[in-house]
Write a structure and sequence with these properties.
With 285 residues, this protein is an alpha/beta fold. It is built from ten helices and ten strands.
Length: 285
Amino acid sequence: MDPEQAITQRARRRGSTTPAAGAHPARTAEREAPAGRPVVEFRGVSKHYPGGDVGLDQATFAVGREEFVFLVGATGSGKSTVMRLLIKEVEPTEGSIRVAGHELGEIKHRKVPFYRRNIGVVFQDFKLLPNRTVYDNVAYALQVTGGTRKEIRAKVPDILRLTGLSTKLHNYPDQLSGGEQQRVSIARAFVNHPPLLLADEPTGNLDPETSIDIMRLLYRINRTGTTVLVATHDQAMVDKMRRRVLELSSGRIVRDEATGLYTRDESTREFAQRLRAPGTRPPGI
């Protein structure tokens, strides 16, 4: 059995477990949302920053179980605000946010670290522990959530094989390439098998070929049952993968396409109007 199959089976077994009555959302966030219930749900969410800047403006959308979604838009459109709200780095000015069936507004401040430990997050700048090996960086994510030595010994090698790092487990971050460091970051984010994995510009510092490998890895993780939400400016990657696309502009959701491109497809009428505009006629037409 390959690592992806083993991980998929574990995720399915985990999904069949019912949370205990009265369990706190922060402690049960790692369980998958019941079938049919969105993993992420924004209802009329706005975020206004001091000084008058608008991060989000009445954003309403839902991301279902096992979906792979790209969040696109210009700098300042609201992508980072969505990510910051999902990890409770900031609070919404108004509206409701639910993750894996739990209302984020009900999670008390002291419980936020527990919640964050059960949401996988991949950053553009990796955020690895420089004085720990690849193995220890990934194992740390299990240690802080109370994982036993037996659990760590079972899970970490599987994740390192899945991410193509099985020959690098004793290396330190400064001995790795940028792509390998991002793989460690993804392995660490996924080792707890979270219901949701957030990736904020995961290919922003990588060359095109390495970016393809990273997106392929995120797709493999998605196939094991984890919902993946990727904020990105990588137009070529979005266009190649043709996954669901949510586009933000000035804090508003302006487009939601099931298999979209980075930019919206032009209608025949829009194309004709553009051709009639002065100075826009393509050569040879």
